[in-house]
Amino acid sequence: MKRFLKRHKDRIVGILSGLDRIVFNAAPGFLRYGQAVEKFLVVNHIRFADYAKWFEAITGQLREHARVVAQREGRPLVHVSSPSASKEDLVRHIMERDGIQQGLICVLTCVEIGYTYRCRAKAKQGKPGLVSEPVPCQHLYFYYRDRDFGVMHLRIQTWVPFRIQVCLNGHDWLARQLDGAAIGYEKSDNCFVQIDDVARAQEIFDHLLALNWQQLLSAWASRVFPWMAPDSPHNFGRYRWCVRQSECATDVMFRSAADLAGLYPRLIHHATTQLQSSDVLHFVGRHNRRGDIHSRTRKIFDGLCVRHTVEENSVKMYNKAPNLLRVETTINQPKRFVVWRPVTRHGEARMGWAAMRKGVMDLRRRARASRAANQRYLNALAVVGESCPSHRVLDPVSQPVVVEDRRYRALHPISREDGERLAVLQQGHFTIRGFRNKDLAPIWLDSTGLTRRQLSARVSRYLRLLKAHGLIYRLRASHRYQLTIQGRQVIRTALVLRNADADKLKEAA
């Protein structure tokens, strides 16, 4: 991101990065697992075929509770006939019509698809059991205008496992914090187009991750599911909250709409024509070659959005407002990312690389990984507008260098030997976790007739050569290497020249 800011420093007035839309999800206690529900039915002497009748009473109590809450608060209870209808537009109309400043706005009911348990014969066990299946069931939406988070909603499924979803927006929370801190700003929809003190606003925004989410979410859930207390007649256990979806946005505020309008078409062209699959893997945190990778451009609001997707996760760029460029990473499946966290390996507790978890305990790491993805994307766009002849990229590595009194030969990136070896380093599965000696030896020196030890020694010498020229660097506390920014530029330039049509090059000359 520093390269992008340096490149366009005369056009940019500020940058703000943080969580935007967050969707939390949870189900109470043992109801999350079909096998646990089966044990509950067995202990209470309830037949699997009759379990639906036992839970019907709770479903009726949930619906009655929603009606009582709406009546007590003097707010409407509205049925939405179609799941595809815009609930936000309806809620906005009710809020503006009744002038709601804080508290419950309305309660909506809607029949939507949800996962519940059905009594089915299990093929492996040869006996009946509970199987999770998608079925239409009624959901209750409680829309609030919260003192700290603005307009938010809680959705509860009225059938087992009574899953609750909480959806809120981080930028609405920041707006209320800026009001309390007396910092002036101009807001458009859910983004800030101008802030008097951007640095202070970023500090406040970072505090969002320090909230006690488990306690906060459970307090909200108790409003819509009244049987969370241990002394309730239906004690199903406490909720364990996870992050179903998170969006982390990096907003670049330009001085004027004209500054962004002159640059944005070139950014879109570069993102759609120059960024390759390996780049997309690098952005969204995939470290293997499996998974669908695709990019698409579509019209959004009054602008244009380009979205790069790798299976469940994505990064996109769009002009959210006339003078605001937004890069946003959406994480639906965090296990595609690896984080450095406490793990247990071979019975020993230590720090190590492990898959990111869905729980709220990893929300801070999720935000950090998303922000890093946004920064990598902006760095990839930093070349837009720069005029850089190929000789300026290749000349520095085409000369011998001396590092710590040791002379290293010149590289020849366009030659067959060096070109083929360098091309391997930018493969997608090396972009996140890096590459090791034993990863490269079978690829670089296959069918050479050398022993394993000779292969390892030759690869080590070549890695030292690349490091001396500044094309790679070693990751801390590991035997892995990564390409530097210069290394990526050299490899890409060399590949373009190697694969270019000679006739077209003559015409260009």
The general outline is globular
Number of strands: 19
Helical region count? 16
Which residue ranges are poorly predicted, with pLDDT under 50 across at least 5 consecutive positions? none
Number of domain units: 3
Strand content: 25-35%
Helix content: 25-40%
Report the structural category.
alpha+beta
What is the typical, i.e. mean, pLDDT? 85
Distance between the termini: 34 Å
Taking all Cα atoms into account, the compactness measure Rg is: 28 Å
Q: How do the strands of the widest beta sheet line up side by side?
A: 2-3-4-5-6-1-9-13-12-11-10
Largest sheet: 11 strands, mixed
Structure, described:
It contains 16 helices and 19 strands. With 509 residues, it is of the alpha+beta class. Helix 9 packs antiparallel against helix 10 and helix 13 (437-444) packs across helix 14 (452-468). It folds into three domains: 1-28 and 168-218 and 239-386, no CATH class; 29-161, no CATH class; 390-508, Arc Repressor Mutant, subunit A (Orthogonal Bundle), CATH 1.10.10. It has an eleven-stranded mixed beta sheet with strand order 2-3-4-5-6-1-9-13-12-11-10, with helices on both faces. The protein has a two-stranded antiparallel ribbon with strand order 7-8. Strands 14-15 form a two-stranded antiparallel sheet. The chain has helices spanning 2-7, 34-43, 51-73, 87-98, 170-180, 198-206, 213-224, 257-273, 277-284, 363-380, 390-394, 416-425, 437-444, 452-468, 485-499, 502-508; strands at residues 12-26, 77-79, 103-122, 127-146, 150-157, 164-169, 185-188, 191-195, 242-254, 293-300, 303-310, 313-321, 324-331, 338-345, 348-355, 401-403, 406-408, 472-474, 481-483.
